[in-house]
Specification:
Blueprint lengths: L3 E2 H11 L4 E4 L6 H7 L5 E4 L3 H15 L3 E5 L3 H4 L2 H9 L4 E7 L20 H5 L5 E4 L6 H13 L6 E6 H5 L1 E2 L18 H10 L3 E5 L1 H5 L3 H11 L3 E3 L22 H9 L2 E5 L5 H4 L10 E5 L2 H5 L6 E4 L2 H7 L8 H22 L1 H13 L5 E4 L3 H9 L8 E2 L10 H10 L5 E6 H6 L4 H7 L3 E7 L4 H9 L14 H7 L3 E6 L3 H10 L6 E6 L19
Parallel strand pairs: 2-3, 2-4, 4-5, 5-7, 6-7, 9-10, 9-11, 11-12, 12-13, 14-15, 14-16, 16-17, 17-19, 18-19
Antiparallel strand pairs: 1-8
Helix pairs in contact: 1-2, 1-7, 3-5, 3-19, 16-17
């Protein structure tokens, strides 16, 4: 192939990695990347803010399990991605951020000279929110370093990786180097397998708790089979929604934050935790009692033990480990299913009594959404209802920023999800979060991405308004007069309509929108009370 420019080396490496889509924003330092990628089969989607590039790469990665790629420019451009990268880190989304840096010829070690977009140590900005960071030191290292960074991002536990390239290297020519060999798969250590099998076989009330690691490894089928043999209810975290289909006989209703479902945890004598770290949001800040006996399956021993230390640990890929757990089949599956069905009815009755609007919202989504739709939620009250109570039929049909809790995730991430090509993206956002990335309505229109935005407009930060109200405080900083979101969307060339509440008009309009070929925005004027899975309403509290 002969010598290639550094930008061409980036394009070659991404092509070799099977990259289909990348998201970016051009800057004076990274323009050669846009030119190089124009001559590949990679679809480069230009966005209106670097944070959108990071979120869209995250949404793409969660929907596909593949590498999400964000291309940004130097200094402030790179810094603008940090919120999105932090969410990817907390949620183990494999994202590669490729950022330019100032020319190597102008860098003076230990001195910030005032070069355009200069940062004393750009890579260091990313250290707290990435698995690793790399800065290329010569043009001929670009391809090999990019391969290494991408594979590290994908390697369990997956997560974002930063790659910095001084801008002068993009135009410099250099010979091609062979990419490094793929890394070894994480080791499997099932030395405690026999003891784990004995504990599970002897349990009277076993329970399986499945997290994001179980979903990312594709462990749903093997977990479902094991649960049936054990007659064990399966609780899924926010990150594992859709791991088992709603009709699975062992799937417990969500979420564990409802007392009816929490009783399953309290009663369990042995818990098998698969691909989870028992974070504070799922455990009500660890007020859920530690299991009597806990068996952890995880690729990372430290991650598995940091919150609820396990009695036994099986290290390795969730699917591979669960697949070798052998326990005798026990009777009682029909009784378990009947019990779980009854719990589900009680939970739905609770919703209908406490917040009829939310019940209407949830029932409409269950009835109207296409089977191949991917739902992307923001940190908003409607999103909390969705994340807690919507029944997802398949894995990777839900993206939710509950890793780091980044407001403004939903809309930009839905662009990446839609670009993955797996079905229509349904974005559920509040007015506050939507305004973070409203400029990317331009991207939505230009790319004609199959996105339906359900924008719940309550003239403010509804969750924070509830917090102040609950504390007996006046509203401060949480209210505003919303813009005309319908007119705003239409001004960008995106079809939009408005309805009041989640009644018949919402159901009819949403049913039409999700069947459309074009992107669209449905503005819903409504105020929802938060559900029981939000922290102010947790029923497990230290003061009780």
């Amino acid at each position: 192939m002969g010598d290639r420019t550094g930008a061409q080396h980036v394009a070659d490496a991404l092509t070799a990695l099977g990259t289909e889509v990348a998201f970016g924003l051009p800057g004076v330092h990274n323009l050669p990347l846009w030119e190089a990628l124009a001559h590949t089969g990679i679809r480069l989607i230009g966005v209106r803010h670097e944070q959108t590039a990071g979120y869209a790469a995250d949404g793409y990665a969660r929907a596909t399990g593949k590498l999400g790629v964000a291309l940004v420019t130097t200094g402030p451009g790179a810094a603008n991605t940090l919120g999105a990268v932090g969410e990817a880190m907390a949620s183990a989304a494999p994202v590669l951020v490729i950022a330019t840096d100032i020319p190597s010829t102008l860098r003076r070690p230990g001195v910030v000279r005032g070069v355009l977009h200069e940062t004393s140590d750009q890579q260091a900005m990313f250290a707290p929110v990435t698995k690793a960071g790399f800065t290329v030191r010569a043009a001929d290292q670009i391809g090999t370093t990019l391969h290494r960074a991408a594979r590290l991002a994908l390697q369990p536990q997956s997560g974002p990786v930063y790659l910095g390239i001084p801008t002068d290297f993009l135009r410099e020519t250099a010979p091609r180097r062979e990419p490094p060999s793929p890394p070894m798969a994480p080791r499997i250590d099932i030395s405690e397998l026999s003891a784990a099998e004995a504990l599970l076989s002897g349990a009277k009330r076993p329970l399986i708790w499945a997290g994001g690691g179980a979903l990312r490894s594709g462990a749903g089928e093997v977990i479902g089979r094991l649960a049936e043999r054990l007659c064990a209810p399966v609780l899924t975290t926010f990150a594992a929604r859709g791991l088992l289909p709603p009709e699975h006989p062992c799937l417990a209703p969500n979420p564990v934050h409802t007392p009816e479902v929490g009783e399953l945890w309290d009663a369990a004598d042995v818990v098998l935790a698969v691909g989870t770290d028992f974070d504070g949001l799922m455990t009500q800040n660890w007020l859920m009692p530690k299991p009597r006996k806990l068996i952890a399956v995880n690729v990372d021993a430290e991650d598995a033990a940091k919150n609820y230390p396990p009695d036994l640990m099986l290290i390795g890929d969730a699917r591979e480990v669960v697949e070798v757990i052998d326990v005798p089949k026990r009777p009682g599956l029909e009784d378990l299913t009947t019990r779980l069905t009854g719990i589900g009815r009680r939970v739905r009755r609770r919703i209908r009594q406490e917040e009829p609007q939310a019940a209407d919202f949830l029932s409409t989504l269950e009835e109207v959404l296409p089977s191949d739709a991917v739902v992307v939620s923001d940190m908003c009250v409607a999103g909390y209802w969705l994340g807690g109570f919507h029944r997802f039929r398949e894995p990777r049909r839900f993206a939710y920023p509950m890793g780091w809790g980044t407001l403004g995730y939903g809309f930009p991430a839905s662009l990446g999800t839609a670009a993955a090509g797996g079905g229509r993206a349904i974005c559920v956002s509040g007015d506050g979060g939507f305004l973070y990335g409203v400029g990317d309505l331009s991207t939505l229109a230009a790319e004609q991405l199959p996105v339906t935005v359900i924008l719940v407009d309550d003239d403010g930060y509804g969750m924070l308004r509830y917090d102040q109200e609950r504390a007996g405080l006046p509203y401060r900083g949480v209210d505003w007069d919303s813009p005309d979101f319908v007119g705003l969307a239409r001004s960008f060339g995106v079809h939009a309509e408005r309805v009041s509440g989640f009644g018949r008009a919402f159901r009819r309009q949403l049913g039409e929108f999700v069947k459309a070929d074009e992107p669209n925005v449905l503005v819903v004027r409504a105020r929802l009370a938060p559900p029981i899975n939000t922290s102010p309403r947790w029923y497990r509290r230290e003061d009780r």
